[in-house]
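REQUEST ID: PR-0412
SUBMITTED BY: lab tech R.K.
PRIORITY: routine
TASK: structure prediction, single protein chain
INPUT:
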Amino acid sequence: MYPNHINTINISKIASLKDYFEKAGDGHTLLLLTDAECSINDMPEASGYAMTYHSMATFTDGSVRDDFDFGPAVLIDNAMARQAATKMSSSIRMACFYDLRLMLQTVGRIQRAGKPLVCAASSNQDFEKAHFAYCDPRNREYQKEAEEVFTKYLKMTGGYITPTTRGVEGFAEIVGSFRTKASVIIPVKDRPEVIADAIRSAAGQKTNFAYNIIVVDNQSQQPTRDILAQCAEQYPNLHVIETTEPGIGIGGCWNIGIQSPECGAIAVQLDSDDVYSSENTLQRIVDKFMEEECGVLIGSYRLTDINMKPINDIVIDHREYTQENGANNALRVNGFGAPRCYLTELVRANPFRNVSYGEDYDLCLRLSRKYKVSRIYDVLYFCRRWGKNSDSNLTPEKLAEFNLMKDTFRSQELEQRRKPATSPRP
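STATUS: complete
OUTPUT:
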């Protein structure tokens, strides 16, 4: 059934989405999400859907992040929107569309249309700028509103959890059972341009404890193999593990490193592209880990070019992740930050997925459900952007694929969080 009585309106022209939809009559509203010039297409079949959209993005139960790409317009069923509007917050202004669409999810389905709703000018969106918008201090007010909206949604749908703030039970005994206190784990596959920098950064850490470096070489070709051999001769605390099975992703490499008998009590991330911001990074991480007795510790980082020159003035610190609500709010954004550091014993019991995108996000979500996650908000890490980053020069199709993968992880995590508790949380 095709909708009739369609009112077309630009979102920027509405003072309050809550007020608008509480008073909306019968029919549908075509809500334009862009100020670009649009021409209306023939409307798709929309019977029974709370919202219809058209973009490359696939909508799932876990598509709860606030940057989901609905395209330039959405078609909203006014009757369902009236129900949703009664659940919206009058105080929300900047995150009002996020509030509306989450409340629509509680009363009906959101469906992708088979054809565009409107013809609009193509977007020249800066992916990197959009991806890290939630870390920009200039967007803090919006972030607070979005967290408020999302927390309300989780409580309404049974996905809210009370974050764990106590330390891991038996933390001291767990750490004491390892021969080495910490290991820097570096998965690599064919990165001759950068891998020596990463190893040098790890090897140059000044600590008051013994640590080692575990490079998991995922069947690299030359000259990466030669570089790793040379580094192994230069640094006695470097262990190179070569994978032998096909189809091993970054998550699988992490599992190999974590399961290695050389792995220390605390496993610290370093991507083969990146470097630590100072020679004191590892000491700060371990000191904080021991102080907090946490299951996961995450630092902050800055985007730089290949020569460590900052690309912008934004620190990726994920200040939206708080002890009070971070385990819930993390479902709303697309990452946890870096460097990511884990109590090795927990990861051995809760392995990474064997994928090469979002494996860290998925693991942190799962661990945050049960264990304390602590943070360091100072820059500990330089994430270097160059032509061979796995997320550089993404096509819209690839970006949609990556986002769907994380939304799938969120769907599965929400399912676990909505299950009735059958035993006390460890």
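NOTES: The CA atoms of residues 48 and 239 lie 58 Å apart.
REVIEWED BY: pending
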